[in-house]
Structures are given as structure tokens and as C-alpha cells.
Design goal:
Blueprint: E1 14-22, H1 26-36, H2 41-49, H3 56-72, E2 81-99, E3 105-121, H4 126-131
């Protein structure tokens, strides 16, 4: 017996990449994900390449994975891809302690996040072709 086949939840013109348990808080990751939402895929890669945030390199790898999935698994045109969704979610929280004065301890929380990037193929606007 094998696993049951689940229907595909995405449209035929969409592809996704999922990263789980990234060692950054969801709040900080959402700032970087907000930079690429609703942008063409090539612009989003360029934005992440020159971002100064530490996590931008990891998000860029996930975006490139989604682009590769679209090209190789779903035969979509790479030049017409747009980042339709960049979803950030909470994951586990590691709790550590920090020694304080008088024998006390305070808690440190180390947050982890999930990231899902969905790219979709969009049609080129016809006005550009008519003007040329």
C-alpha cells in the first residue's frame, strides 16, 4: 500500500517552495517576505541579492527553488513568473535561560519560522506589444 493521492491544491499556472524551521523570528522574516510580494520573479531575486538583511540569502534560495519547480516540474515560462504569495508562519520556540543576579534566571526565547513562496505565471499585457 502506498500513500493516498491528494489533489493538487495550487492552480496549473502556480508552483511553490516551502522552507520549514528557519532560525529567525516570524516578525523579522515577514519584513523580508514583504519586499518580494507581488513582484516579478526576476525583480524579487534582484531585491534579495542586494538586501542587507541576514535572512535575505535564505529567502532568495527558497525563491530560486520555487522558480526551478515552476520551470522543471510544471513547464511554466520563467520570464512571466510573479511572486503571488510569500507566507510566513510560526514554528517551534526554543526556550533557554540567562543567569541573572542573586541566583535568579530569566528566559530567552529563540523563535523559528516557516516560509512558503508561491510563484504564478501571468500573461504579458498586450499594450506593450502594440506600442512596439
Amino acid at each position: 500500500m502506498s500513500k493516498p493521492k491528494y489533489p493538487r491544491t495550487l492552480a496549473e499556472t502556480e508552483a511553490q517552495a516551502v522552507l520549514s524551521n528557519i532560525r529567525i523570528s516570524p516578525r523579522k522574516l515577514n519584513l523580508v517576505a514583504g519586499l518580494i510580494r507581488n513582484k516579478p520573479a526576476s525583480d524579487a531575486v534582484a531585491t534579495l541579492t542586494f538586501s542587507k538583511r541576514r535572512i535575505a540569502g535564505t529567502v532568495k534560495k527558497a525563491l530560486e527553488s520555487a522558480i526551478a519547480n515552476a520551470e522543471n516540474n510544471h513547464q511554466l515560462d520563467v520570464d512571466r513568473l510573479v511572486v503571488t504569495r510569500a507566507e510566513v508562519g510560526k514554528s517551534v520556540v526554543m526556550r533557554r535561560f540567562h543567569a541573572r543576579g542573586r541566583g535568579r534566571a530569566s528566559q530567552i526565547e529563540k523563535w523559528f519560522s516557516h516560509l512558503k513562496i508561491v510563484v504564478a505565471e501571468r500573461k504579458q499585457p498586450e499594450t506593450q506589444n502594440e506600442a512596439a
